[in-house]
């Protein structure tokens, strides 16, 4: 039996908000939801060199929130790395629905200071109480004092709960990453030179080999640049070139509205180089997955947070720290990036089906209208939502807030992610129920600005209040 209304707690006036209506240019092509990935230039924010945060007792100022870039990615595009031109169309008009909290309600200064103090207290303990840390962080981590950087590393298991082990663990991991770079990012000429260098010839041949060149007699068939052997380092190098070029293109397209990631400054270029190094090392260490378009979008928030740590030593080691946290985060979603597993119980289609079932459980009327009446396949919008962890549906600052909650869930981020996706549908249910295939698809592929606190509140309620 279809549910005719959502729970009363959802319609509370506390979450109702009125926003100005914006216009959008018409786009009636139903196939546009398959269009290639593109970016719209947005107001610059969250950019520049590493941020120096205020002292813990100070009120943390909200980062500017730029207009959300419109990015459309289909599942084939996400894997094949296809991009399109810039599109400056505005998002769909925002209706003043009671079920759509469209104004960002910033936590009060007192709440920020209180939560920051609680987090600093937990971080100062000899052994961090992870359960309490998760509880506090799930409400959002204030920007300042390097709190988010430390908390995310703890939540992702990169730092142990015992603070006395932090120094040794960080030293070990950073040394390991340095070794990965030396082994995996080295040009084959240098590898060959090192392999063929004879200890007894160090005196006379050192001078001739200083340029990295080898004599013809020193190059074996397996290490010849034209060798097609499976074990040939040159053959592997040329095979990797295509992936490296794709990574380079995607990294340069990462958040073009932010000087932190984009631009001609040495700071932006060094950040791009760090992202490229991480993705290349990951691809070579994970031949089963390698690199899939979209991984750069998941990597960006991690690197941004760690690189902006006010602790200079931490910021300087952001690349190594980000690599291991990226590996840990992706471990829970890696099957979504493997096309061979798409139709398996752990693949992306199974996860999207789980989202569909979750919506049916909590709002069968909306589920029936979307999937039965208007025939909007959830893959048309949920593929991007899930694979990119909502990084493209909201502006960067709001994405960080959402990730605070995702990473804090002891059940793992995927369950929380699906609840948030379900809440996103419920919050705009009136507009969806009034829409047809075309209008609903446009709305879901260009999700309207939303009260993030409300969204996370509703998602948490879905955990506590199953169907009934």
UniProtKB/TrEMBL annotation:
Residues 83-95 have a biased composition (Low complexity). Residues 80-103, 197-216 are annotated as: Disordered. It comes from the Eukaryota. InterPro entries: Rab-GAP-TBC_dom, Rab-GAP_TBC_sf. Pfam families: RabGAP-TBC. Residues 197-208 have a biased composition (Basic and acidic residues). Residues 142-410 form the Rab-GAP TBC domain. Gene3D superfamilies: putative rabgap domain of human tbc1 domain family member 14 like domains, Ypt/Rab-GAP domain of gyp1p, domain 1, Ypt/Rab-GAP domain of gyp1p, domain 3. Coiled coil: none annotated. PANTHER family: TBC1 DOMAIN FAMILY MEMBER 13, TBC1 DOMAIN FAMILY MEMBER GTPASE-ACTIVATING PROTEIN. This is Rab-GAP TBC domain-containing protein.
């Amino acid at each position: 039996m279809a549910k005719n209304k959502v729970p009363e707690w959802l319609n509370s006036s506390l979450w109702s908000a009125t926003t100005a209506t914006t216009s959008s240019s018409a786009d009636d092509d139903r196939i546009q939801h398959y269009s290639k990935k593109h970016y719209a230039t947005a107001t610059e924010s969250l950019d520049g060199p590493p941020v120096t945060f205020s002292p813990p007792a100070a009120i943390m100022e909200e980062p500017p929130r730029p207009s959300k870039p419109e990015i459309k990615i289909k599942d084939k595009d996400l894997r094949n790395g296809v991009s399109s031109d810039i599109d400056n169309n505005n998002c769909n008009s925002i209706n003043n629905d009671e079920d759509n909290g469209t104004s960002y309600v910033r936590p009060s200064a007192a709440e920020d200071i209180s939560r920051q103090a609680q987090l600093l207290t937990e971080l100062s303990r000899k052994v961090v109480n992870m359960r309490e840390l998760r509880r506090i962080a799930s409400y959002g981590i204030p920007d300042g004092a390097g709190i988010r950087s430390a908390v995310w590393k703890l939540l992702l298991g990169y730092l142990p709960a015992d603070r006395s082990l932090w120094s040794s663990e960080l030293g070990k991991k950073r040394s390991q990453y340095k070794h990965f770079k030396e082994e995996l990012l080295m040009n084959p000429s240098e590898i060959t030179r090192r392999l063929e260098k004879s200890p007894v010839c160090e005196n006379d041949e050192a001078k001739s080999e200083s340029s990295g060149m080898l004599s013809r007699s020193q190059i074996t068939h397996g290490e010849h640049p034209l060798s097609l052997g499976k074990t040939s380092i040159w053959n592997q190098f040329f095979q990797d070139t295509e992936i490296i070029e794709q990574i380079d293109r995607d990294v340069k397209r990462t958040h073009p509205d932010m000087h932190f990631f984009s631009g001609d400054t040495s700071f932006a270029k060094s950040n791009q180089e760090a992202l490229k190094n991480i993705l290349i090392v990951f691809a070579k260490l994970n031949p089963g997955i390698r690199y899939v378009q979209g991984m750069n979008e998941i990597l960006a928030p991690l690197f941004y947070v760690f690189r902006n740590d006010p602790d200079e030593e931490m910021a300087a080691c952001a690349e190594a720290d980000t690599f291991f946290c990226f590996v840990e985060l992706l471990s829970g979603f890696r099957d979504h990036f493997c096309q061979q597993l798409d139709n398996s119980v752990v693949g992306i289609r199974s996860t999207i089906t789980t989202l569909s079932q979750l919506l049916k459980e909590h709002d069968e009327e909306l589920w029936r209208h979307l999937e039965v009446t208007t025939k909007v396949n959830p893959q048309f919008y949920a593929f991007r939502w899930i694979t990119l962890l909502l990084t493209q549906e909201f502006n960067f600052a709001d994405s960080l807030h959402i990730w605070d909650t995702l990473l804090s869930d002891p059940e793992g981020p995927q369950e929380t992610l699906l609840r948030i996706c379900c809440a996103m549908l419920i919050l705009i249910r009136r507009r969806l129920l009034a829409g047809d295939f075309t209008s609903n698809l446009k709305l879901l592929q260009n999700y309207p600005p939303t009260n993030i606190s409300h969204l996370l509140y509703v998602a948490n309620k879905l955990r506590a209040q199953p169907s009934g």
